[in-house]
Design goal:
about 350 residues; alpha/beta; Spore Coat Polysaccharide Biosynthesis Protein SpsA, Chain A; eight-stranded mixed beta sheet; three-stranded mixed beta sheet; 8 helices; 11 strands; globular; binds 2-acetamido-2-deoxy-beta-D-glucopyranose; glycosyltransferase
């Protein structure tokens, strides 16, 4: 008897260090996450208009924490449209049981990704409707097969959207076509205090914010924030870095970017082939200090044309046409301006 008890006690004691180690690791990881989220300015938006009962709540009871995502790629437009009958032509929606808080212009830069666009719109419309947002979805496409210039077409879309007077948009959300939001509590709302990076946690990147300066994917800016940054750079020809450039602009303009916590700002990325990276993108980025000479204010000096602005059932389509010489009035900025420290 005595021997057995002694044996049990030793056995229990043997496990103790392992248990303590496991708990310690768990606590350390948790604290590191909390620390990272703090340094990356991650927090949930607060409802400051709770007293106004006509206004839609920031977190309506219709929100879902874990949205079932259907990533199937074989749908026709008719199937997608079938399930979204409450959307007005042009991709417009206004909640009818409360007054929406902000009017959102969702801007999706796009080319040759029709399958992804269907998947995104199939989820984005119901997502925004459960959030009771008033919004319009703009898909801006670069015509033809020339080198892609995402910054330029996003500037064009901003310009078109801000010309609208019915409604006047309060908040511009630049949204990659391949990112599908997973959690409704990631409310699409601009923060007047600063730019809001809505996509800190993407499944392809293991749901972690890779670095504090990352603002790519989904970014919400008020008109004022957008203008203070002078919009997007027009000088990134090819894939990548225009978002890092925007990060420099926003910080130099004095803003502190915020984000939802990783558990809330979660997205699924639709897999696709990598595109051709921008030529000399490191050089272009190193000269970001040119920003007041290269952005939305210079758009009228650039050589582009809007081929069509068409209203489809689920979105407004802006088709933009230009060649590599579109930015010839500002190309010299990449030589003249000294590097930023
Ligand atoms: C772009 O390339 C595709 C495929 O190679 C081709 O079918 C299409 O006609 C091209 N578009 C233009 C405007 O040249
Ligand atoms: C696009 O621009 C090119 C070059 O300026 C022009 O030749 C072409 O006709 C334009 N296409 C459309 C659809 O506007």
């Amino acid at each position: 008897m005595l021997n057995t008890r002694k044996y049990l006690r030793i056995k229990n004691n043997e496990h103790l260090p392992v248990i303590i180690l496991a708990i310690t690791i768990f606590v350390v990881i948790h604290l590191c996450n909390k620390h990272d989220e703090k340094t990356a300015n991650q927090y949930i938006m607060e409802d400051n208009d709770k007293e106004n009962h006509q206004l839609c709540p920031l977190y309506p009871s219709t929100l879902q924490k874990h949205v079932q995502l259907d990533m199937s790629t074989n749908l026709e437009w008719a199937d997608v449209e079938q399930n979204l009958k409450n959307v007005q032509t042009g991709g417009i929606y206004t909640p009818d049981d409360c007054i929406s808080r902000q009017k959102l212009a969702i801007i999706i830069p796009f080319r040759n990704r029709e399958t992804q666009l269907k998947i995104l719109l199939r989820h984005l419309h119901p997502f925004l409707q459960r959030q009771k947002r008033a919004y319009r979805i703009f898909v801006v496409e670069q015509f033809g097969n020339g080198t892609f210039n995402k910054g330029l077409i996003m500037n064009v879309a901003f310009n078109q959207a801000s010309k609208s007077t019915t409604p006047i948009f309060d908040c511009f959300i630049f949204h990659d076509v391949d990112l599908i939001p997973e959690n409704d509590f990631n409310v699409y709302e601009c923060d007047k205090r600063g730019p809001r990076h809505l996509a800190p946690a993407v499944d392809e990147l293991r749901y972690f914010l890779m670095y504090n300066d990352l603002i790519g994917g989904v970014l919400g800016l008020t008109k004022e924030q957008f203008f203070k940054a002078n919009g997007w750079s027009n000088l990134y020809w090819g894939w990548g870095f225009e978002d890092d450039d925007m990060n420099h602009r926003l910080r130099h303009a004095g803003y502190h970017v915020s984000r939802p916590p990783n558990l809330v700002g979660r997205y699924k990325m639709i897999r696709h082939e990598k595109q051709t990276p921008a030529v000399n993108r490191y050089g272009t980025l190193s000269k970001w200090l040119r920003y007041s000479y290269d952005g939305i204010r210079q758009l009228s000096t650039l050589d582009y044309s809007i081929v069509t602005t068409e209203t489809h059932l689920l979105y407004t389509h802006i088709l933009v046409n230009f060649t590599r010489s579109a930015t010839k009035t500002i190309d010299h900025l990449l030589e003249d301006i000294p590097k930023a420290k």
